[in-house]
Design goal:
The complex is a heterodimer. Chain A has one domain. Helix content of chain A is about 20%, strand content about 40%. In chain A, a hairpin with a 2-residue loop joins strand 1 and strand 2. The longest helix of chain A has 17 residues. Chain B has a six-stranded mixed β-sheet, sandwiched between helices. In chain B, strands 2-1-4-5 form a four-stranded antiparallel β-sheet. A two-stranded antiparallel ribbon of chain B has the order 7-8. The chains are: A alpha/beta, B alpha/beta. Chains A and B meet through helix 7 and helix 8 of A and helix 2, strand 7 and helix 3 of B.
Chain lengths: ~450, ~250
Amino acid sequence: MNVAVMKTKAEQGLAEQFEKVADKLPGSTAVKALRAAAFGKFGALGLPHRRIEEWKYTDLRVGIKDVLPPAVSDQTPVTSGDLIVALGPLAHIDAYRMTFVNGNFRQDLSDWDGATGFEISPFSNALTSDSQSSAIDPSVVTGPDGDATIALNTALMTDGAVVRVPEQASPDKPLLVVFIRAGRTAQLMTVRNVIEAGPRSKSTIIEAHVMLPGAVVDGQTNTLNEITVGEGAEIAHIKIAIDEGKSLHLANSNVALKADATYRGFQYTSGQAIARNQTHVTYLGEGGKLDLSGAFLARGSEHIDTTLVVDHAVPHCESRELFKGVLDDRGRGVFQGKIIVRPDAQKTDGKQMAQVLMLSPDTEFNSKPELEIYADDVVCGHGTTSAQLDDDLLFYCMSRGIPQAEARALLIESFIGEAMDKVEHEALRDALMQYARTWLTNDKS
Amino acid sequence: MLEIKNLHVKLEDEDKVILKGLSLTVPKGEVHAIMGPNGSGKSTLAYVLAGRDGYEVTDGDILWNGESILDMEPDERAAKGVFLAFQYPMEIPGVAGLTFLRTATNALRKKRGQDELTTPAFLKLVKEKGAELNIDIEMLKRPVNVGFSGGEKKRSEILQMALLEPTLCVLDETDSGLDIDALRVVSDGVNALRNKDRAMLVITHYQRLLNHIVPDKVHVLADGKIQKTGGKELALELEKSGYADYTGKAA
């Protein structure tokens, strides 16, 4: 390992932590070699910083001061009652459940008995079984090469969900994959989910990162999703990350769409000191559809970054992105949306919109749409807006008897509601709105 | 009873004085019209009554049922029965009309010490009021006023007025942007809401509205003051002679 390029205290700390836990991390000899190579790559790359174009607005060298010990075979006690409390409004969703506590699978808190249409197993099984017998190859990552957060994920991944939806299957309920942070020890959790939607299947997967009330607030999470949507398949993937202002959340979703496949993604993010959702979508066949939206809410000095790369590699594909942000205090939002249309990708139809509501004069929003179009017969557009709450609308609501706080909440809800409406599952949409409402009523200002 | 006493109002951010000692009394059960040329302060009066930001009352007072409302927030005034029908009703994308009205109705009921209505009870009430006013409540399923025609927006204001049960109704240029059919529907709606406990202030530039909503009194507002008060015939007189007598120039 080239220690000379390790520059910051955090990078140094990561190297020490990796050395300390390398033997304890789950995996065969091949996996250990994979981890070592990945960490070597991270060592060469270092933490991403502002002079790397993709990380211009989210500098992890500045943002990550301390490194937390990786959570390996964590045994923090969590009861099913705790799980309900941690889930909040999500607890009412009728869904199969797979639960992880501090990044480690917990059978006792999981329940997918009788699940038809989902084949579910913990990712740690794929790490420990020899590569010949496992259907999952942990070395496969389709995201951008040279991304330090992905390299770190491979080096330290402990567990996660492996979900297969068989051909033509249409599970009767969504699958809720819950990652709970619990206990008083601040830890680094590294998880990987592998999701394969078989041809012509139709399913909904909810990925929720929540904390148990009373748990240590400064946890770190690095999560990576490898998602393949088969021919003619449709998957709704709702990712929720909710925290209390001190945590770090680094998330990658790499999505591959085969012919006529549809990926409907939604990302709800609030309460992290730093959060970065990177989504990388590649079209592998014609007729693919992407409908990706999200809502992010930041206050205090929270910083939430949404970075998308949508790669139209083949013709006749469609992409839609709609992100809504609500920023208060010194909250900061970042939106980077890159749409690449390759020379052969004629008839591409891509539209992107990012809008934020700035509730305080000290908020900041950095928006960077990038269209790289190499084909000539395409329809592509993007837009960004940032605005304050409309005083005239506020007056109108109040003149009808609605108190100011309630009127503000109503207008903010209506603003993010447009994005939330993209979530087709009604109870889930209501739960998301409930999270947003809770965020609004927790307003300390 | 509404009592406006020697009201002086200027814009908060500019040195522009708009109302210069306006006095006016509207007893319960009466409908008064305020007519005046453009720029006379009609809309300012409407907004100051409802409590909009941006105006500074430098002198005088507004009493509603003997109580000054000047220090009250708009929602508190609404709870006391004040309702402003806007000249240009606002569009609120993303909020369904029914949600908006249910929120407002229940906020008001809470403040007035009444029980909040359940969703079915609220829907029943909306249907009843809609039928009374001959207003199709289908439009309430859409976001508030979004994509509405001028007539639909005004009808939606009148329906809100009926639901929120105000005791002081201020109608700001309710006739603007209405064709004759829409004007009739809106006027019929307003007339249906006239009763002995309700005071109404109808602000308009043109006499035409007053053929439909016949006022008990007409006040001429020009240069920030009431210049003349008379019966409904004063409106007809104004229609003939214009506002020139009150402004020193042709309006």
